[in-house]
Amino acid sequence: MTNPVLPPAMEPADLVWRDGVPESARFGDVYFSRDNGLEETRYVFIGRNRLRERFAELADNRHFVVAETGFGTGLNFLAAWAEWLDCRPKDDSAILHFVSVERFPLTRSDLEKALSFWPELAPQAAELIAHYPPLIQGTHRLVLAGGRIRLTLYFGDVLDAWRDLSFQADAWFLDGFAPSLNPEMWLEDAIGQIRNHSKPGTTLATFTSVGRVRRALIDAGFSMQKVPGFGRKREMLTGQLEVFGADSGASNRLPVAIIGAGIAGTTLARNLAERGVPVVLIDRADQPGAGASGNAQGALYVKLGVEYNAQTELAATALSFSQRYYRRWAGQFWHPTGLLQLASNEQEQHRQQKFLERCQYPPELLEPVDEELGSKRAGLKVTASGLWFPGSGWLEPAKACAALADHPGIQQVFGFNVRTVRSDGKGWTIESQEGQRLSAARLVIAGGHESASLNPANGKLRLKPIRGQVTCLPAEKYNLPEAVICGTKYLNPAMSGIAVTGATFDLRDNNPDVTLESHQENIDQLAELLPAVMGDHGPDASELAGRVSFRCASHDYQPVADELKDENGQEVPGAYLLTGYGSKGLTWAPLMAEYLADRITGQPLSLPEPLIRRVESSRLYPKPD
């Protein structure tokens, strides 16, 4: 008897390979045709949904959504991706969204083996495999082909996926196993959800011609017909809802003003600009990343909860997404050295033990290590066990903000100290202390701990500044690690002769100046956490440099990415709030930017409903008595 899989790990597909074709040992069905799986996909799904002509006819700056009921080997997705690139000009900002579900996902090695049979799809397959998420339950957004392709991949039950995800499909690939082998895939509830995620003009195609499937789709409002199948398959089904050629959403090219050029504002600005949305990026400083994002080094990590609930899922999803997101800048401002999270005291040892007893994560996301292995991975002797995150590392935050803001679709406006923001019902006017004015159709407040003072809505937002001082250690005087180590403090590897450690967590201190006391706190706690760092001589805090910044935290220490609402829960039209990242801004920023950009542009959402509730802005107002 095998041990049960603990959350959030997914039970992978159990494959049997026959003549080079993968079969499901669980369901006894093949993943693609033995004759020619790619040609079958092109015939059944690409051809019968008329995707080539619909892709070619789609207006610039629009998006097209394909939804699928079973991801399998990803062959259908890669085929759609290849057709999209073939039909759309390279400089077009239109986006293909592909939404798919898989209850038993393939491992990375099985995926690589299965897709190796299609050399014509090798470039797409290699990129998919490189970005393939760890097998943990929930929603994974993959941004591919430079942002022209966005895959929303849900690991879990299909009914849960369609209840939790927000999108409207233009075309459906009703793939998966035969209804007789996997009847849950074809329940009336599932087909009802398919209808809920469709619009007038949505088309569908499926291998099957089973009568109960056809009747259920007709009952759901699709006009259905049997057509010749592929190869030895005599018949298959196609269908559509009413009017063909429905609009795929507004182009959403109205300009967006973003106040705040830290990691929150610059990741969103870059995301929108790459979708073809013009952005005005505003900050009172003279360059990006001058505030809380201005430290020389910052670690990419989260502290995952013992229980796998919505809060933990959001953190794990954000970590996985950020690791993929920064990969394109490896060697520039992103340094994927790995990260060791130490069980630095008795309390943390007990917490990590409970965490490992109750949760199971794939080793590509994290794995437990003892003192010996932890020391080897980190390149420095440690005296406690811990969790090793191989895909994490550290960034140069200010450099990251500058690189992200460097895009022709982003107008940078610095030295602009915002005094007021006002709406005339059609757009927003932002006025500076010196009387300068800027206008935009939509507004995003991403001003960190100053966001509350910029709020144009009624009510006081529960946001607070937290002072954090970091300390810079000269590399020649200290023994420094090769990977990031964190516990009560964090310590980065050396960069340009220094390594950053810290930061203090000062809730009731608004002193903007570097203090000797904060340096001493950082050094004392680091010495306790990592005695090997100090070598033979004691540190002199008075000789050390550092920096103070003020992070922004919400009352519940969760991020905010949402339409701006007032104290009564009413939306402020055309305004959004993006803040509350606390000390984990580098990890939160990419996913929150992706999600808020989805909302601003009306595209399929990268977060499921339970996680959306975690980042709503209305929770920032105190509940009435």
From TrEMBL:
Reaction equations catalysed: 5-aminomethyl-2-thiouridine(34) in tRNA + S-adenosyl-L-methionine = 5-methylaminomethyl-2-thiouridine(34) in tRNA + S-adenosyl-L-homocysteine + H(+)
The name this protein goes by in its record: tRNA 5-methylaminomethyl-2-thiouridine biosynthesis bifunctional protein MnmC
A GO-annotated cellular component: cytoplasm
Domain annotation FAD dependent oxidoreductase: ranges: 256-599
Similarity section: In the N-terminal section; belongs to the methyltransferase superfamily. tRNA (mnm(5)s(2)U34)-methyltransferase family. In the C-terminal section; belongs to the DAO family.
Organism: Marinobacter vinifirmus
Enzyme Commission code(s) on record: 2.1.1.61, 1.5.-.-
Gene behind the chain: mnmC
Intracellular or extracellular location(s): Cytoplasm
Annotated stretches, region: FAD-dependent cmnm(5)s(2)U34 oxidoreductase: 259-625
Ranges for domain MnmC-like methyltransferase: 120-241
Matching Pfam families: DAO (PF01266), Methyltransf_30 (PF05430)
InterPro entries reported for this sequence: FAD-dep_OxRdtase, FAD/NAD-bd_sf, MnmC-like_methylTransf, SAM-dependent_MTases_sf, tRNA_MAMT_biosynth_bifunc_MnmC, tRNA_MNMC2, tRNA_S-uridine_synth_MnmC_C
UniProt record, GO biological process: methylation; tRNA wobble base modification
Keywords linked to the UniProt accession: Cytoplasm, FAD, Flavoprotein, Methyltransferase, Multifunctional enzyme, Oxidoreductase, S-adenosyl-L-methionine, Transferase, tRNA processing
PANTHER family: SARCOSINE DEHYDROGENASE-RELATED (PTHR13847), TRNA 5-METHYLAMINOMETHYL-2-THIOURIDINE BIOSYNTHESIS BIFUNCTIONAL PROTEIN MNMC (PTHR13847:SF283)
GO MF annotation, one: flavin adenine dinucleotide binding
